[in-house]
Specification:
Number of helices: 14
Radius of gyration: 21 Å
Shape: globular
Helix content: 40-55%
Length: 376
């Protein structure tokens, strides 16, 4: 099992972000206290050892050493942790002084994920990132002194980002000798500043064709550099795949702690209220501020197809038949036929995988394979 801990604080709002966060840090300690209480309330909810702990957000690097240790102490006291867990902290370059980096390296944290997004000033300003380009490279160089297991986030498909600038972003990352890179296409979410600016003509629209070309260049360049594209957005050198990410895509159970955090036990999904004040109030009263959804067999099949098709391992035909039954397998192959003929999918050793031509379209292909209704 894994534990995801949502830290809902940021210094400032990025223009593209629709995650749950607050820019007020006044209640940070109260929130940490509530996180710890939720961890206690939910101990025993999922069986097995804790293999991964992931601090996401928001901006987890806003936590200080004492706050992190308070959370770790709570986990150690209430959960069975494996001998070699992967413990990741998301960090922003502007937070990461060398003193903090050293403090983190001496804590239980053994993996850093740094939110770079771009090494170019104009991109960072467009996205309203709190750091500048020099801080990004300096942060990574310092992090390399303290962490072997290091990842960065990059965003492509940014308005006015040429192929050349995207390739330069990747080249800088490769020259910095980073073993894992997560890359995401810029998406325009409702109720974000980015959407508002595009509608007013302040920022040019995001173009799918540009993002698709950037993704193609990304796959080619990272492959040449020895990275495996083990999941659509994730590129790792052997031995540096994110165990946390792989657990999500392989359907393993995880516990989501904090406001807006989601959990999954194999049969049911739960999610906490996306409101810091309500979350803290209910947790203080000993109540869990969450909603629940029990997944049907059809839901589980659709999620299986969606998640596995995004990975380099693909959809196992044997697993579909053994888990869901022969009718599901027949339906899957029927729906996949057109994509196989058009070389967007390929059957390889009983696994259905997307080809290079189909990779950027994998979510759309998966939706074609989804089950709407299956007759008896």
């Amino acid at each position: 099992m894994g534990i995801y801990i949502h830290i809902p604080f940021c210094k400032q709002a990025c223009h593209y972000c629709d995650f749950h966060f607050s820019t007020s840090l006044k209640k940070k300690q109260n929130l940490v206290d509530a996180l710890c209480k939720e961890l206690v309330l939910r101990k025993g909810e999922l069986p097995g050892e804790v293999q991964t702990i992931y601090f996401g957000g928001g901006t987890p690097s806003l936590l200080n050493g004492a706050e992190l240790e308070q959370i770790f102490k709570t986990i150690r006291s209430n959960y069975n942790i494996s001998e070699d867990p992967e413990i990741t902290l998301e960090a922003n370059p502007d937070d990461m002084s060398e003193e903090l980096m050293e403090e983190l390296a001496n804590s239980s944290i053994n993996r850093l994920s740094i939110g770079v997004q771009s090494f170019f000033e104009e991109d960072l300003k467009l996205m309203n990132r709190a750091h500048n380009a020099n801080e990004a490279t300096d942060c990574i160089k310092t992090a390399r002194k303290y962490f072997d297991n290091l990842s960065i986030d990059l965003i492509y498909g940014i308005p006015k980002m040429s192929n050349e600038r995207w390739l330069q972003n990747l080249q800088i990352a490769l020259e910095l000798d980073i073993p894992h890179i997560s890359c995401y296409a810029l998406t325009v979410e409702p109720k974000t500043a980015l959407k508002n600016f595009i509608e007013k003509g302040i920022i040019p629209p995001v173009e799918d064709e540009v993002a698709q070309e950037h993704h193609k260049l990304l796959v080619e360049m990272t492959n040449e550099a020895g990275f495996d594209n083990y999941e659509f957005s994730n590129f790792g050198k052997p031995g540096f795949y994110s165990k946390n990410n792989m657990a999500y895509w392989q359907g393993k159970p995880y516990l989501g702690i904090g406001p807006s955090a989601h959990s999954y036990d194999g049969n049911r999904r739960t999610w906490n209220v996306a409101n810091n004040a309500k979350y803290m109030k209910e947790i203080t009263l000993g109540e869990l501020p969450l909603e629940r959804e029990t997944l049907s067999n059809k839901d589980k099949y659709n999620e299986y197809v969606m998640t596995r098709l995004r990975t380099m391992w693909g959809v196992s035909l044997d697993e579909v038949e053994n888990t869901f039954g022969k009718k599901y397998l027949e339906y899957l192959l029927q729906q996949a036929d057109e994509h196989l003929c058009e070389n967007r999918l390929i059957l390889e050793k009983d696994h259905l995988k997307v080809t290079s031509e189909g990779k950027f379209l994998s979510d759309g292909i998966a939706s074609d394979l989804f089950l709407i209704e299956l007759g008896s």
